[in-house]
């Protein structure tokens, strides 16, 4: 897949989707069946586990939205992008990070490797 911007937009939309069934379907369309998601707080495999991580983030930050920060870059089946988590009504981000996605020949994500650059105090 050469259009990493479109992939990143779909990825962010999945994290922002409020309906769990719609979100789970979006995850199924984005990730390979054995796709992975790894960040400092989680390391999971498969659509159900990825959906659970996303649901956990949404539960921890109700009313917040993810959005892309800066350009999306990609080459050789690997893309990277930065993102932030902001209040839905506007305001400063509470979390910022960047993700690297490895994409298979079918255009679906094989793995996402996330890094957290800004996190709220515990």
From TrEMBL:
InterPro entries xrefs: NTF2-like_dom_sf, SnoaL-like
Top-level taxon of the source organism: Bacteria
Keywords tagged on the record: Isomerase
Gene3D superfamilies associated with the record: 3.10.450.50
SnoaL-like domain residues: 9-110
Pfam families in UniProt: SnoaL_2 (PF12680)
GO molecular function list: isomerase activity
Name this protein carries in UniProt: Isomerase
Source organism of the structure: Phytohabitans suffuscus
